[in-house]
Amino acid sequence: MMNDTILVYPYNGSLYAYNVTDPSVAEPVPPDNVITGDGWENPRLVTVVNGKLPGPDIIVYEGQDVVVHVKNGMRSEGTTIHWHGLPQVGTPWMDGVPYVTQCPILPGQSFTYRFKAEPKGTFWWHSHVGTQRSNGLFGAFIIKERTETSTEDLILQINDWNHDMYSDMEIIKDKYRGYDGRIPWPTKRSLDNSGLHISPIHAGLINGRGRYYDTNGTDNGAPLTIFNVMLGTKYRFRVIGTSSTNSFRVSVDGHTLTVVASDGYDLDPVDVESFVINPGERFDFEIMANQPVGNYWIRGITLEKGQNHRADAILHYINAPASQPQTSRQLCTATKPCTVLNCPFTYYPENYTECVKLDKLKSAPSGKPAPIFEPGRSKEYFLNFGFPPSVNGRSFDTPDVNPLLQPKEWSSPCTSPQCGDDHLCKCTHALEIGNNDTVQIVFFNMGRGKGASHPIHMHGHSFYVLKMGYGQYNSTTAEIIGDNPDINCTGPGKDSKKSFCTNATWRNSSWLNGNVPNIELNHPLQKDTIIVPTGGYVVLRIKADNPGLWNMHCHIEPHLLGGMQMLINESFADIPKAPDWIPDCFSYPASPYRMGLIKNCQTNQSNQNDALPVGQVTTENHPGLLIAILVMQIIMMLVVSFACFRQRNYSTCAVCKGHDEPGISLEQQ
Ligand SMILES: [Cu+2]
């Protein structure tokens, strides 16, 4: 680690210069300007914005116009920024998905995101390219209500941390498994004995800080994040699951957590001892600082079997001594069992510890009811997420253009015989929906590709969670023993072990046409990311009222990279016209369609070039935060305003910007 130019090392919660031999008598180096990560002292790449890990918090009020200038300061990678959870109504080209809604911002280039901040809630921003997010390119995005509140806000971003995380290497590890010497890595197991992403992790971080534990369980004493609280005050923790691959169980010693919102939407408050947050999810909880003045552990533990990967932070009551907490986690007893919200399995394998499933919660009274399913008008789809990374046996073929704005220039249809129930295919898989339809989607996780639970994130919508079904479990061992029987994954007479389950349906046909029993229609939660448990399913609905081309994918980053993603092609003809300055992208030679268009547009080409944004783009750099030898830095600036960005209007070649019809070959499921 380095503080600008001084090499430092961690000891007993502080940092010291490398030439200090006895830290017990030396003055520590302030940790504020050092990216410490887990205190790992060897070189490690981080990819960060404005020199911070996590990047800067973006906190705005509901309804404000947000303008973010992004300059890619990396030397060898393109990037985009996705605004996770924001529906981007009317601005689908600002969704930040490379080769779906925009071209990547190339090294040295800039791009200005401009969109409306709505709805209120806890969101975040992150790179959508490669493993940049896993390497640190993320931050909080909070949209506050324009009302006074007596509750203090605290932001807590929790993620796993690796000492080596590189895009192509992750895919290779995923495909061929990693080796130490000639010994393959052991299969990682979750607490229910189902699988986990194969790559090992090295630590957990809260707001960019954590500790590396050696094999003996001894930590390296790296500095941790400290949340200062005042006795008698109520706090709202906005917890963001910024993990790359792992889920965390979060708790605070000595304090009951009142969970009040998830993924930006309020819910009927529920008191729990802890909750599980998966990559991409958010949970807001409130605590009352009503315990004896002191220091308390905030704990995040992974759900890995036989591992000790923790993301710890300190709840520090003002006026308490600055010392490490000595507290223990809540004792779970027969008379006072611990409740864990959002387990990805049915039983938590600890004594007197009970899982509370997410679909047992209700939205706040202000929440909307689920859209009505009208037989004949509404549609239902079954989508199976599995390995090799795919959806319904289709591994995502990423376009080399921006299909949102260049729909006629890309075609990679998922057609037979290329795709089948028993063989994987690679194509641009898209679900075509529109006309204000109610769409019921069943995410499930069965067949030959099952093995791990997947947190699935939908862009463009916060879906209504109607029901969750889990696999079958041994109530004594808490281990998974079979799939949920509600879904007939393969059709009659087929072996599910050989099937990608592309023809799944409800085992009981009376459940079709929106008639699944025991679904929550009046007060369903609204979420944009949800765990699809292995062997289980999630029933959700959306109203197709947001025209766009929306990415939907597993939020475990290597699974996304490997192809566990698809598109929702929603009301394409109704997508509003994008600003002319948004550039097209294409390979060389370009598609035949473009080759023809270029010929037609030559006379206007200079005008097109002039149409790039030339408003008040400024750059700002905050150097000084360095962790290792290799640090890539993105420079990003936020300007929140209502009219701070001038844009010149030029005439452009209309046919080159044609996005008025869905020329892209997207398959209807
Ligand atoms: Cu996944």
Q: What's the CATH H-level homologous superfamily of the domain at 139-356?
A: Cupredoxins -  blue copper proteins
Architecture of the domain at 139-356 in CATH?
A: Sandwich
Question: Which parts are unreliable, with pLDDT below 50 for 5 consecutive residues or more?
Answer: 600-634, 637-669
- Separation of termini? 50 Å
For the record, what CATH class of the domain at 139-356 applies? Mainly Beta
CATH fold node name of the domain at 139-356: Immunoglobulin-like
Counted beta strands: 44
Offer a quick outline of the entry.
The chain is mostly beta strands and 669 residues long. The chain has 4 helices and 44 strands. One of its GO terms (cellular component) is plasma membrane.
Describe the structure.
This is Laccase. Belongs to the multicopper oxidase family. One of its GO terms (cellular component) is plasma membrane. The termini are far apart. This protein has 669 residues and is mainly β. Among the domains are: 218 residues, Immunoglobulin-like; 196 residues, Sandwich (Immunoglobulin-like). The strands form 11 sheets. The chain has a 7-stranded mixed sheet, with no helix packed on it. The site of copper (II) ion has 5 residues, from loops.
